[in-house]
Amino acid sequence: xxxxxxxxxxxxxxxxxxxxxxxxxxxxxxxxxxxxxxxxxxxxxxxxxxxxxxxxxxxxxxxxxxxxxxxxxxxxxxxxxxxxxxxxxxxxxxxxxxxxxxxxxxxxxxxxxxxxxxxxxxxxxxxxxxxxxxxxxxxxxxxxxxxxxxxxxxxxxxxxxxxxxxxxxxxxxx
Amino acid sequence: xxxxxxxxxxxxxxxxxxxxxxxxxxxxxxxxxxxxxxxxxxxxxxxxxxxxxxxxxxxxxxxxxxxxxxxxxxxxxxxxxxxxxxxxxxxxxxxxxxxxxxxxxxxxxxxxxxxxxxxxxxxxxxxxxxxxxxxxxxxxxxxxxxxxxxxxxxxxxxxxxxxxxxxxxxxxxxxxxxxxxxxxxxxxxxxxxxxxxxxxxxxxxxxxxxxxxxxxxxxxxxxxxxxxxxxxxxxxxxxxxxxxxxxxxxxxxxxxxxxxxxxxxxxxxxxxxxxxxxxxxxxxxxxxxxxxxxxxxxxxxxxxxxxxxxxxxxxxxxxxxxxxxxxxxxxxxxxxxxxxxxxxxxxxxxxxxxxxxxxxxxxxxxxxxxxxxxxxxxxxxxxxxxxxxxxxxxxxxxxxxxxxxxxxxxxxxxxxxxxxxxxxxxxxxxxxxxxxxxxxxxxxxxxxxxxxxxxxxxxxxxxxxxxxxxxxxxxxxxxxxxxxxxxxxxxxxxxxx
Amino acid sequence: xxxxxxxxxxxxxxxxxxxxxxxxxxxxxxxxxxxxxxxxxxxxxxxxx
Lengths: 174, 497, 49
Prior knowledge:
The complex is a heterotrimer of chains A (about 170), B (about 500) and C (about 50).
Chain A: H1 2-15, H2 27-32, E1 39-53, E2 58-64, H3 67-70, E3 85-91, H4 92-95, E4 106-107, E5 110-121, E6 127-139, E7 142-143, H5 150-168
Chain B: H1 7-27, H2 29-37, H3 41-62, H4 72-90, H5 92-97, H6 103-114, H7 130-145, H8 147-154, H9 160-166, H10 177-206, H11 211-226, H12 244-258, H13 261-268, H14 272-277, H15 279-302, H16 308-323, H17 333-336, H18 341-353, H19 366-384, E1 394-396, E2 400-402, H20 405-431, H21 436-447, H22 463-478, H23 481-495
Antiparallel strand pairs in B: 1-2
Chain C: H1 10-14, H2 17-48
């Protein structure tokens, strides 16, 4: 009986989902009402732009929580407006090994970040950002291609040629 | 009684437009080269197409036989047409990229780029090809430094003066327009080298970016800062960098961009006292102090910032951005919309007042404000002083000048036109349900070519509003006169004898 | 009167890189001074409000 109870206890512990200590906040909501979320929060999205390695052992980057993180334009994603992002400060060791941040033809790593949301942090001259304590990789970065537009190439080249011909054969004053 | 334009008029205009199209087409080779190095083949093909159109139209224009006598009205038409047609063709790479919601959105950003406004309808900027991002910022540089000046340098020809003045630059700093143009170019190049080096160094060493990216960011922020444009390479504008040092460096470029070239000349040639005696300098320092105080008081009252450093840094940067007409932001648009009360007033006023005349800044401009204020003060003195007393009418602007009634009238007329422009734009915004303060803010931002946004500018905004803001950007950049001359020309063509 | 606009030849200007550097430094100084003024105003404002 005791063995059964012990097994049951282990099973419960193993199967119980890792307690989400905090509700996940969409970055859009964070931006609409930033002072509401002061304290520890979790956000999720794509890291974009650059990894700025500063001298104090932290990395600054931007986290975008918009449709482009999940459905990039170059993979047929729809246009849904501007990017929705916040600045994040991550301890450098958490960034090690991550794929490069998102940019042209690159979808950056999708991550879940937990940390302190600093709104108008007086220690950082009024900046607002997420001070990250924990980083979980959800999906690694991806790269895609984008080929040239053949019609644009041909028409463009043709027009330049035409311009050249017209210029060389321009009527000269005698 | 309007005289109908004849074929010769059209040929002269076409010839000048030809010059400008060729210069812009050649300028397009730079992003083309960039796309080649970065193997960005889709942008490459769209740039090729754009260059082809510019060059072909340019050559057709240049082939028009003309005696090269560009008079005032021709010059105005050329200026107005340039700021209409160059964005039209320049928007082609944007349209083909898929990052804009349509042709109008792409045109909006092209107009915003060339007029050094900085309002943007681009979508998913953070994944935009670097060469396209570069073209956005290069448009600021072309529009700021004046395509026309470049065209003059390349094809030294007649009619230079007319084009130059039509471009809303009110003073001749050097004896000939060509030498003035060359000086403006030198100032730009010096600031490019110093600015990009400093920004790049900060981005590389302080912010820890990779060297190529540091240079990229430095270059983009230089173009947008010095030309007081306001586009930025990432979607969070200058807030992206989270660095007071970077903001300060950008700030230096913004100030340099809002200074008149006459003032730059005074600084370069060692006449530093003249800088402080100048009417514009005094005016702008006063208005900056005023709007700064208003904004900081407003922010403190709303409790958005509770510590001095944060309050001052964020307030200072946004007011500097507004007053110089740049449009960089270190807070998101959604947050700027909460800067209510006196803070809103301070920012809106700073935007409307603008930078110095003969600079890349927009707005009513310090020279006009100074002249208007002086004029009113003089009127009051005349009333108060005993009859027969003489009121001094001198002021300093590149030497001693007289405040004549004509000058005062011209300054006040244009100032009133700006106010009317802001009000009309605000009215249209309100008609679409935008709250008064936001509609006013965005309208002033467009008409004064600033580019700060409280969120009204959005791909989903009504078409009419997009068109109205585009018209505001065009009218504001050209300071009305060229546009009126252009419309008059069209009217004469249709109705004249 | 020796520095009147007309009296300086364009060719001299182009080689005036020193002039450019000095004016850049002055611009930097101007921004720093303005920033300090902003800080002062900010501090005063917070005290009063």
